[in-house]
Every structure is written in C-alpha cells, then in structure tokens.
Design a protein that fits this description.
single chain, alpha+beta, 5-stranded antiparallel beta sheet, globular, binds cobalt (II) ion
Length: 154
C-alpha cells in the first residue's frame, strides 16, 4: 500500500469523464488499496480515481461505518433533497452547501467484478453522489445550493 498524491484544483483531469473499468486485475486491487490508505491519511470520506490521476470509473467511500469500494458505479434510485456543507480533498480549504438527494441507491461492482447495490442516506448519500460525480468530471462546486457563493467552477 502507498499513499498517492491527490490532484488539486486547477488540474484539468478533474474535469474529464472517466472510462469504465474492464479489467478486474491485481493492479485495480492495488490501486484501490492505495486509495483507501490515501483517503484515510487525508481524513476524507471519499476518493475517486481521477483524484489520483486515473481516468477510470471507480472510487472509495468511508463515512465511518466501513469502506465501500465502487467500480463502475451507477445511481439507480434517488429521492429527497439535502443541503449540507461539503468539501473535497482536491479543493483544500473550500467548502459550500450543495444540493444532493437525501437517499440514493447505487449499483456497482467490487474489485472482483461482482455486482452489488448499496443504499445511503444523509452523509453517505452525499459522499456516494460526490464521488460518482468525480467520474463524470463534476465537482461539488457545480452543485452549490446558492450559486452566488464560491461561484461555478467551470
Ligand atoms: Co471530491
């Protein structure tokens, strides 16, 4: 395991759309292990592959109740609305209140390629949406509830 460098605001990779994972190999497993270590070391609750410079559709989330690894994740259900303060390891020192669904169900694959679903509410829903957004080049500043604060990051 190793701590990876987190890509910061201004790097264009944060704005690119990631490609699907096709190979569930040792390299994917190793990178997921590194991402978990990097996320925990940075005291974050999620990290997406583009944030360590890899344009592939996977991310990790840990809101305190265990690590979830999501490969090729898709939001299949969402409901409600929450407006809470949010930040991002790629935007140190920046925070904003975002619009997010209160509850989401995500279908994804694990590191072996097995499909599973996970449902999250509140912070977990927020973290899942935030990380999946990264795979489409979307950052939390694009989801601000009050768009006059912080400004759109385009
Ligand atoms: Co982020």
């Amino acid at each position: 395991m190793a701590i990876r460098t987190i890509v910061k605001d201004g790097d264009e990779i944060l704005r690119k759309v990631s490609r699907s994972v096709l190979n569930f190999d040792d390299r994917l497993a190793q990178t997921l292990d590194d991402m978990i270590e990097t996320m925990h070391a940075a005291d974050g609750c999620g990290l997406a592959a583009p944030q360590i410079g890899i344009l592939r559709r996977y991310c990790v989330v840990d809101v305190g109740d265990g690590v979830i690894e999501l490969v090729n994740p898709v939001i299949i259900e969402k409901s409600g609305l929450q407006q809470e303060q949010e930040g991002c390891l790629s935007f140190p020192g920046r925070w904003g209140v975002t619009n997010r669904p209160m509850r989401v169900t995500v279908r994804a694959q694990n590191r072996k390629g097995e499909t599973f679903t996970v449902t999250g509410e509140g912070l977990k829903a927020r973290a899942l949406c935030h990380e999946i957004d990264h795979l489409d080049g979307i950052v939390f500043l694009d989801r601000l509830a009050d768009d006059t604060k912080g400004g759109r990051h385009r």
